Amino acid sequence: MSKAWIVAKKEIKDNIKSARFWGLLGLFILLIIVSSYSVGFTFRFGGAAPAERFFRSVGRSLANSFQYIAPIIGIALGFGAIAGEREKGTLRLILSRPIYRDDLLNGKILAGTILILLAIGISFVIGIPVTLVLQKANLTGDDLARLLFLLVPAILLALTYYAISLFVSVNTNRSGYALVVAVVVWIFLTFVMPLISAFVASSILGPPPALPTGINATRPAQLPPQLQQYERNYRQITGTVQLISPNAQFNTLANAIFTVQRQQSNLDIGAVIAQNWTAILVPTIYIVVFVVLSYMFFVRRQENK
């Protein structure tokens, strides 16, 4: 483990010195501030629901943005982890020293995890106080608990794409190619999977029942029972198809974090996890599977250059 920590320290040091890491960190902080301004504008002009709290709306806005930003930091840290060393010709030099392949990979994974925690954690430590000062908003203990709990799915999502990018990096000679493949995977899971799930649901259920004249489609309670049942079936099928999508699972858990139950005004973390355990299990499976595959392929691969 000491050798792995040496690798990790070097990786962390190199990334902290890079403009890419600080650019991502700045993007996270800017995202929090911009989200708070957007929500603050809505509150000032009466666009929010009367019972809605400012930081809960900020949390929802952040969750919508994190589903795109968190994968980017995972990909940015993972695509060049091994392929970059191989491309520069330093991988064989590193492995010629008294260091095992699993030590090298352990160090890379440890560094990637720490850097993801630093990027997301520091952005919250800076972004939330800045929001408090600029927006003069009231942050309750429940608001803070919900915002901090949002870090869990955000970190899991970033680690998921880090694990995927690391696996691609292990199996390629060019970091540019690893980046392209990782981005293609991100595009598929983020944008294509929802389209596939909608297509499957439409193919199974057919077209929705016609909406009677005079019914407001924006008010679910006013919809006829047949249409309400159709929408429930539609959501169930799309949810089942997207069960394998870490992005969809992130959205599920993030929505649950900022949903306030009538009988429970404060966040009940245990209840949220119990009701949305698949949203934690699915990204965890992705992380474990791709990390294990990275070990298997990296240990067996012969370095030709």
Instruction: Report how far apart the termini are.
Output: 27 Å
- Outline, from the CA principal axes? globular
State the domain count. Answer: 1
Kindly provide the radius of gyration, computed on alpha-carbon positions and rounded to a whole number of angstroms.
22 Å
* Mean pLDDT across all amino acids: 84
Low-confidence stretches: none
**Strand-residue fraction?**
under 5%
Structural class: mainly alpha
* Main sheet specs: none
The amount of helix comes to over 70%
* Helix/strand order, N-terminal first: HHHHHHHHHHHH
Kindly state the number of beta strands. Answer: 0
> So how many helices?
12
Account of the protein in words:
This is ABC transporter permease. It comes from Thermofilum adornatum 1505. The protein is an all-alpha fold. It has one domain (2-300). The protein contains twelve helices and no strands. It has helices at 2-16, 19-44, 54-78, 83-88, 91-96, 101-135, 141-170, 175-205, 225-241, 246-257, 269-275, 278-300. Helix 1 packs across helix 6 and helix 10 packs antiparallel against helix 12 (278-300). The longest helix has 35 residues, at 101-135. It is globular. The two termini are 27 Å apart. The relative contact order is 0.13.
